[in-house]
C-alpha cells in the first residue's frame, strides 16, 4: 500500500527539479574530474568527508559550513563541487556570481535568501556559494564591497535550519584575508586550504594522467624538473597541457617547460643545464 510516507520519500529523493538535477548543476564544475595529484588532495577530501558526516549526523546541530580557500586556479570550485557530490544530499544548489551578473544588491540578496529558504524545506540540503568575494562585489582598488550582501550572507551562514533539517554550506574564496577582515571567517564551522601544486611529483602525477606526453617525454620532464621550485594551480596546469597538446610531439617537452617558466610556475634555479 502506498502511504503518505512513501510520497514524502519520493518527494525528497526521486522527484527531480524541473530545471535540472543537483548532479547536473555540479557536473558543469566537474567536467574535467578531480586528479589526485598528491597528499594535499587526499587529505582535503578526507577532511571534507568528516564535515559531510558531521552535517548528516542526527545529533549534530543541523548546520555545517565549510570554506575552501586557496590561490586563484587552485581548484577550489571543483573540489567544493566534488564534496557536494560526495555528500549525496538530495537538494543541492549552486549560488554563483556568474548567475547574478547585473543583479542589484537587493535582488542578489533576495536570490541568495531564496536558495536558503528552498534548502530549509528539504531534510538534507547542500548549498555551494562559489567565489564569495565576487558575490560581495569585492574590488581590491578602493577597496569596496557590498555591505548589504555581506550582512545577508553572515546571517544566513549562522542561521540554524528548522528542527530536523540538515544544511551543509560549502563556500569558496581566493581572498582569505579579505573574509577575515570582514569578520566572516569565524562564521564557518571549518576552513580547508586548497593549495597549489608545489612539488615536481605533483606535476608528474598530473602529466601522467594526461595523454599529452609519451613515456620517454615524461622521463625527460621528470629529469629536468627534479629539485626545481614549483608553484602552479591545477587549473592553470591543465590549461597549459591543453595548449602544449596542440604542438607537434617533438617540441612538446620544450614548449611545456618554457611555458611553465613563463607562467612563473616553474623555477629551475641552479638546476638549469
Ligand atoms: P578560480 O580561482 O578561477 O575560481 P578555482 O580555484 O575555482 O579557480 P576550478 O575552477 O575549480 O579552480 O578549476 C579546477 C579545474 O581543475 C577543474 O576543471 C577541475 O576539474 C580540474 N581538476 C583536476 N584535478 C583537480 C583537483 N585535484 N582539484 C581541483 N580541481 C581539479
Ligand atoms: Mg572558482
Describe the protein.
The structure is a single chain. With 273 residues, the protein is α/β, with parallel strands linked by helices. It has two domains: 15-193, Rossmann fold (3-Layer(aba) Sandwich), CATH 3.40.50.300; 200-271, Helicase, Ruva Protein, domain 3. The chain is 47% helix and 12% strand. It has helices at residues 4-13, 22-27, 39-56, 76-87, 105-120, 132-135, 147-158, 176-181, 200-209, 215-225, 234-245, 252-262; strands spanning 63-69, 91-95, 124-129, 166-173, 190-193, 229-230, 266-267. The strands form two sheets. A five-stranded parallel sheet has the order 2-3-4-1-5, sandwiched between helices. α5 links the parallel β2 (91-95) and β3 (124-129). The longest helix has 18 residues, at 39-56. The chain is globular. The model has no long low-confidence stretch (mean pLDDT 93). Residues 30, 32-35, 37, 41, 72-79, 131, 172, 174, 234-235, 238 line the site of adenosine-5'-triphosphate.
Itemize the secondary structure elements and their pairings:
Layout (H helix, E strand, L loop, with lengths): L3 H10 L8 H6 L11 H18 L6 E7 L6 H12 L3 E5 L9 H16 L3 E6 L2 H4 L11 H12 L7 E8 L2 H6 L8 E4 L6 H10 L5 H11 L3 E2 L3 H12 L6 H11 L3 E2 L6
Parallel strand pairs: 1-4, 1-5, 2-3, 3-4
Antiparallel strand pairs: 6-7
